[in-house]
Write a structure and sequence with these properties.
This protein is an alpha+beta fold. The protein is built from 24 helices and 17 strands. It is globular and about 90 Å long.
Length: 574
């Protein structure tokens, strides 16, 4: 593992402006630098890089982070690869333990992430030993290069093979990670047995789960995924996204398929911008994640009834995340084919022709609603309106909503105004109450003001400031951790300081990062820090006095000390 102190020193030495400018030419824009965002298509620049804060941020798609995350997102590097790349740029040597990467270390399990990574190394090593597993992959047209690219492995047959990797096989973390299963008698055994293993990675390239596919066609289930864990939620992750990010941006689109083998087989034929949902329908979280990579999402489904049902679920789930910039299309392959079989039989050119003729979302919705509705009678048209109502109410993209409403109104033989009143639809272009609430920023708390000004001027923090407030709430603990980090590193940039703060609520961290991006760098942060500290001290003192006053009032007058009597007199209490 790379020491945390080294990462902090590295971030403090590199300049995020230089790192970004090598890939995305930047222009000076006031105190910051700007460019068109490299993570989504746009015509006017909304991507800014701050040399003071050492952050980049896109006000269009929300992409943000440090020099490390930029290399990961833009170049498709893993966290470790990005560290090595940055270290090379500034002439630093990355401290690390030398070991054989294909040989998993035999040691006790330290944590969830380490357990999953060790298991991935074990499965990868086992694939090289299994002629049967290699023969299966070759029969599916997979080369060793593609298998290595996706870190494909093999879980051998047997009940407790992982015991050779984890001597403490009974450790609870193995159960939490989903690597083992425990039966009613308390007996443990490996979750994945005699399966081709597909590691699932997060945006940092860390293994967070697995998908296992059977080799023997008679075995069931065909695909078997890791369970939900603290680091893996199926509704938030997409298989292959970490590997495909660069290809998605180059192609200008992403293809969403149904299985791991589809992703890997398509990559074998040069269609390397495909991802797969993990045993669940596509969710708004998936769409939002893909929108950070591209403005065009194409879903590929089998042409049978099961495929069409899955397509409709994906369409409905995507509605809340739609924007007018996003192009969502649906591609249905001929019956009997999935992407894997189609590309092997007809090749890349024919497959991409199918992608080009994929059906736009609005057309697909209209087709689905009218497919089994002849629209001959008044009742047919009422049925259409009833089925369209929940769909139209979920679409917040103004232009798409307008076009779809007009088409539905035309089919139902009513005017757009009549349909709007009848279905109680909000006026197109008018923000909903929820949207208005989101746009209005709530007043910033004193604690957050102190936190932000401390991040901008860590040299101002003193020993007395640390633990300025008692650790009662999550915000209190966050503030005190920030102040401690600032005190220890008075010369660090804001991005490095935030990176150093550990064990805080993810929502609070995201909130502070967002506020930091929006901070006006022309402010006098010394004055801001002093003012916020004074206000906070007064607030804390008032709370202490109120608490003490309450305690004194509970005592009989005869039991009061001279000091307590003096305090009551000072506060004007008789």
């Amino acid at each position: 593992m790379i020491p945390e102190q080294f990462i902090q020193e590295l971030l403090n030495r590199v300049d995020v402006v230089d790192v970004v400018d090598k890939s995305v030419p930047l222009k000076k824009a006031g105190a910051n630098f700007s460019a068109c965002c490299p993570f989504h298509n746009e015509k006017s620049p909304s991507f800014t890089v701050s040399p003071t804060k050492q952050f980049y941020h896109c006000f269009g798609c929300g992409a943000h982070g440090t020099a490390i995350s930029f290399l990961m997102e833009y170049n498709g590097l893993s966290f470790v690869e990005a560290i090595h790349d940055l270290a090379k740029q500034v002439g630093m040597i990355v401290p690390q333990e030398a070991r054989d990467v294909d040989r998993p270390p035999k040691q006790s399990v330290v944590g969830l992430q380490e357990a999953l990574q060790q298991a991935a190394l074990y499965y990868k090593a086992e694939l090289k030993k299994s002629e049967r597993a290699i023969a299966y992959l070759k029969s599916r047209g997979l080369s060793g290069l593609i298998a290595a690219k996706f870190q494909v492995g093999y879980a051998p047959a047997g009940w407790q093979n992982l015991q050779s990797v984890f001597p403490h096989y009974e450790h609870e973390v193995l159960n939490t990670a989903g690597l083992v299963v425990e039966n009613e008698q308390g007996k443990r055994y490996d979750r994945f047995r005699d399966r081709i293993m597909f590691p699932i990675h997060n945006r940092k390239g860390e293994v967070i789960g697995f998908g296992g596919r059977v080799i023997n066609p008679e075995d069931t289930p065909k695909y078997y995924n890791s369970p939900e864990t603290p680091v893996f939620q199926k509704g938030h992750e997409l298989y292959g996204l970490f590997v495909a990010r660069r290809a998605i941006r180059d192609a200008g689109r992403v293809l969403v398929v149904e299985g791991y083998m589809d992703v890997v087989a398509l990559a074998q034929y040069g269609i390397d911008y495909a991802v797969a949902a993990l045993g669940t329908a596509t969710t708004p979280f998936h769409i939002a994640k893909l929108m950070r990579q591209t403005d065009e999402v194409v879903f590929s489904f089998d042409g049978d009834q099961a495929g069409r049902s899955a397509a409709w679920r994906a369409a409905i789930n995507a509605l809340p995340a739609l924007t007018d910039k996003l192009k969502l299309r649906f591609m249905f392959l001929p019956t009997g084919h999935d992407p894997d079989s189609f590309v092997r039989e007809f090749g890349k050119v024919q497959f991409e022709m199918e992608i080009q003729s994929a059906m736009p979302l609005s057309q697909y919705i209209v087709q689905h609603l009218s497919e089994h509705n002849p629209l001959h009678s008044q009742e047919d048209r009422v049925k259409l309106l009833n089925e369209a109502e929940p769909i139209l109410k979920q679409i917040n993209a103004p232009r798409l909503s307008l076009m779809l409403r007009k088409k539905i109104a035309e089919l139902a033989q009513v005017t757009d105004t009549e349909m709007q009143g009848l279905l109680k639809l909000t006026k197109v272009g008018k923000p909903t109450a929820k949207a208005i609430q989101r746009q209005s920023r709530s007043p910033m708390s004193i604690k957050k003001r102190l936190m932000l000004s401390a991040l901008m001027r860590p040299d101002l923090v003193t020993k007395e400031d640390v633990a300025l407030v008692p650790n009662v709430t999550d915000e209190d603990r966050f503030l005190n951790k920030v102040l401690s980090v600032c005190l220890a590193n008075p010369s660090y940039k804001p991005a490095v300081l935030l990176h150093s703060v550990k064990g805080v609520d993810a929502g609070l961290m995201a909130d502070v990062e967002s506020e930091l991006h929006l901070l006006d760098e022309s402010l006098d942060f010394a004055l801001e820090f002093s003012g916020a500290r004074t206000q906070l001290l007064e607030t804390v003192q008032q709370m202490k006095e109120t608490q003490l006053l309450h305690q004194i009032k509970e005592k009989p007058i005869s039991a009061l000390t001279d000091e307590e009597r003096e305090m009551l007199k000072k506060l004007g209490v008789k």
